[in-house]
Amino acid sequence: MTETVPSEDLKSAEEAVDLPEIGDLSRYDALMQTIRNRVTVRKFDRDYVVPEAHYDLILEAARHAPSGANAQPWQLIVVRDQPTKDKITEYFVAEQRFRAKAKMKFPTPDYRGLATAPGFIVVCSDMRWVNAFPVLNDGSDLDRMYHENAERILLQSVAASTMSAHLAAAALGYNVWWVTAIGQEEAQRAMRPLLDIPDDISVLDIFLFGPAAAAPYKRYRRPMEEIAHYDRYNRAHQMSEDELKDWIKSRRHRVMYKDSSRVD
Ligand SMILES: Cc1cc2nc3c(=O)[nH]c(=O)nc-3n(C[C@H](O)[C@H](O)[C@H](O)COP(=O)(O)O)c2cc1C
Asked: Of 123, 127, 90, which Cα lies nearest the Cα of 205?
């Protein structure tokens, strides 16, 4: 039986642990169907109302993610209030305009679609959780190195939880959208008052989901032979500086969007 009710009772949760026989493909196939069909859209059917139970199911998936030191350093704010969604959207649209002016050459999507998302979850973390990971806290160079590593552990932990939530949404039939672009302190300052977020808490991502406004499309995936290595790093996979530059210049927009003429 799939567990849908949060279980605080570790003993019964332990008893309920149930993996299939090694090699039995039935759950793998169901999981891959969800993974393959988790597709980003950047505009949703704004009239759809997410049933409250779906938030529970999605947050429950986030809650079970693995994390460094089992710190579970994620906080998830479900935003149902349309004026708040609109204000957050305004920030992103302004950021999009700024990037266009700054000539970053990044094919920034149309962030107006944020306001159309029926499911709108702001993913936050308390960055002080880095202290739960191996750090020295003595101000030394060595400490800086460990702190850098600790920050990566924290961000990977939150990403693992976010991914669980995205997959749960996809398993429920929703399209999803993962929005970051909010690393800057300025973005933090803009976002915090809208959601009454304390200063120690950072907004890391926005997770949008809902029925798509137009037919979703599957994006390019690198073939297996480009990413898989066995026993040693296959240097044939290593790109030169020029190849990488060329990829960013000529291919990036084509893998992000359906075609070069379209930015969604
Ligand atoms: C860590 C991460 C950050 C992302 N940040 C953004 C973002 O800031 N804005 C955006 O429109 N899409 C963002 N995306 C969505 C990606 O562009 C999208 O997943 C990718 O193009 C592949 O498309 P797919 O999700 O349909 O497979 C992000 C995805 C990930 C995993």
From this structure: 123
Most informative mutation of 164, 178, 253, 263 for ligand 1 (most atoms within 8 A of CB): 178
Fold category of 39-216 in CATH: NADH Oxidase (3.40.109)
* Nearest-angstrom CA–CA distance, 184 and 61: 28
Q: What is the pTM of this model?
A: 0.92
Amino acid at the residue 242: D
Domain definitions of the chain by residue range: 39-216, 220-264
The answer to whether the CB of 41 falls within 8 A of the CB of 216 is yes
Indicate the burial class of 74 (C-beta count within 10 angstroms; 0-12, 13-18, 19 or more): buried
Encode pLDDT of 233-261 as tens digits. Answer: 999 999 999 999 999 998 888 888 876 55
